[in-house]
Description:
The protein is of the alpha+beta class. The protein has two domains: 12-157, CATH 3.30.1330.10; 169-337, PurM-like C-terminal domain (Phosphoribosyl-aminoimidazole Synthetase, Chain A, domain 2, Alpha-Beta Complex), CATH 3.90.650. It has ten helices and 13 strands. It has helices spanning 16-25, 73-89, 110-126, 178-195, 207-214, 220-229, 243-254, 269-278, 282-288, 304-307, and strands at 35-37, 45-46, 52-61, 94-104, 130-138, 144-153, 169-173, 235-238, 256-261, 295-299, 313-321, 326-329, 335-337. The strands form three sheets. The chain has a seven-stranded mixed β-sheet with strand order 8-10-7-11-9-12-13, sandwiched between helices. A hairpin with a 7-residue loop joins strand 1 (35-37) and strand 2. Helix 2 runs parallel beside helix 3 and helix 4 crosses helix 5. The chain starts with 15 loop residues before the first helix and ends in an 11-residue tail after the last strand. The structure holds adenosine-5'-diphosphate (ADP) and magnesium ion (MG). Residues 21, 25, 39-42, 100-102, 131, 133-136 line the site of adenosine-5'-diphosphate (ADP). Its EC number is 2.7.4.16. Residues 40-153 form the PurM-like N-terminal domain.
Amino acid sequence: MIEDKNQQRTPLNSLGEFGLIDHLTSQFKVSHKSTIKSIGDDAAVLEFKDKQVVVSTDFLVEGVHFDLSYVPLKHLGYKAVVVNLSDVYAMNAQATQITVSIAVSNRFSLEALEALYEGIQTAAKIYNVDVVGGDTTTSTSGLLISVTAIGEIEKDNVVYRSGANSNDLLVVTGDLGGAYMGLQVLEREKQVFLVNPNSQPDMEPYTYIIERQLKPEARKDIIKLFKDLKVKPTSMIDISDGLSSEVMHLCKQSNVGCDLYENKLPLDPQVISTCEEFNIDSTTVALNGGEDYELLFTIAQEDFPKIKANPNFTVIGHMTNANSGMYLVTRAETKIPIKAQGWNPLND
Ligand code: ADP
Ligand code: MG
């Protein structure tokens, strides 16, 4: 299902490496002043003047991080960029450039890579980042994509994972668990499809959660919102592996504990209904389902009035002393220690 059988299929080796790079990257335009030299030399040249520079990189491996039987290549390209930008925003920084490296086998056609790059280009445009380089090589098996994101920030505005204080409020953007439940639906439909290729599933009840899985967005808007509201979080992380695992990172690196309230967890109605259908506990999904790419951060209590009226934010708990531990306070008001059951790349 990589591509439509009726579509044109130009073999990659008909272009050669340089022809391919040229073909894929000729569309990219530069829009940041900090990009002095983009694609075309041995290295890109960037200049950030008095800003600090943040750099983050991620790998996506076919069969581990994505399954091409239900992930369209265009979406994959988009997602590969977005998940990296999310890490830059999690530092409270503005993303400015990316590099994109791919390893492909001859199983892929030029048209398939064009689709991948269409997604990359769309994301670069929407998030306003320059594609300034990359690398292209062959793979003997699957597709590998690595994106490196670069961002800029004024020195005093960087937000680390380590700055949370006891009594700070714990806040999350958007809603949780959607990407995980979207994946459950896609996996189920894949199995149905394998048994009956003519089945036409009704995906209407799942549009939001499938989009959360296939076409996630990074919260660039929130970084601007912080500026407008004059809020500087004391600590921040993006939610890629699941809320409980990210909460633990904030607590451990800040040397604090936390109380997280089950009844405050933000859930979309589609997540709730799909959890009921799959007979999965929605709290477990909100805590451990990954890939939502929302931001999790802490603020001082006195900043609460600045964020309280904003629908992007949900206060889900508060930080405590390190020796109090990390707890989920359930609807029944019992306290359960938080454990990270988030996705562990080395156990997968
Ligand atoms: P080198 O041999 O020095 O690695 P390449 O021929 O691989 O150089 O790359 C030439 C130019 O194209 C460089 O600017 C590089 O960053 C860029 N480039 C290579 N592959 C990609 C890619 N997949 N996406 C974007 N830019 C790329
Ligand atoms: Mg190279």
